[in-house]
Amino acid sequence: MYFIVVGGGTVGLHLAKELVGDGHEVVVIEHDTERAQQIADDLEDDVVMEGDGCEATVLKKAGATRANMLLAVTGDDPTNLAACQVAKQLFGVGRTLARINEPKLEEIFQKLHVDATVSATSAIMAQIEQDLPMHPLLLLLKLKATGLEIVEVQIPEDSRIVGEPLNRISLPYQSMIALIVGEHGAARVPSAETILHAGDEVVALTLHENEELLREALTAPPTSSSEPSR
Prior knowledge:
Layout: E1 2-6, H1 10-21, E2 25-30, H2 33-42, E3 48-50, H3 56-61, E4 69-72, H4 77-91, E5 95-100, H5 106-111, E6 116-119, H6 120-128, E7 137-143, E8 148-154, E9 176-181, E10 187-188, E11 201-207, H7 211-219
Parallel strand pairs: 1-2, 1-4, 2-3, 4-5, 5-6
Antiparallel strand pairs: 7-8, 8-11, 9-10, 9-11
């Protein structure tokens, strides 16, 4: 396969090395002259091209018309987005991937048809989120172009749904529980009568905008009754 890597920083250099080592054809586009020379010394001259990876003339010279994938991994989010859009719209590159430094921009990149995004912040949070009580809902997968997500949440001991069957739990619109992983890792596809227990790992499907509602439905404690006695 032929890869164009936009950005010759630490990430871009290591990506290029790995891809070349796997037998792929790679060109790294780096705008800084000194950095481009360093990469050329580390790899080979024909793997490096000095220029702006956002410019159509540079991408054309790099062979974007035959590239299988463009990886935009600079430290600047607008640059990564522009490189992906030019590659996709002008040269029909089959797949684009952008590094995102500001996680809040991830949804914008996806709406602008960047095929895949990678955020170091989001990746680290995904690893620790399930251990943080304030973040009980863990994103597993986004289903492209549907607005749907597959998420995981562990049912806390004080959740109001502990001991309740699924058919008595009110879930938000377009949400469903697809899998329950119980004690000792035993997984089961639930039915309407399946009882939820504290500590169950629930895999659910939901809309992105309903994440908080789903979190509330599965983890909130019982509402206290404060009716005065008669």
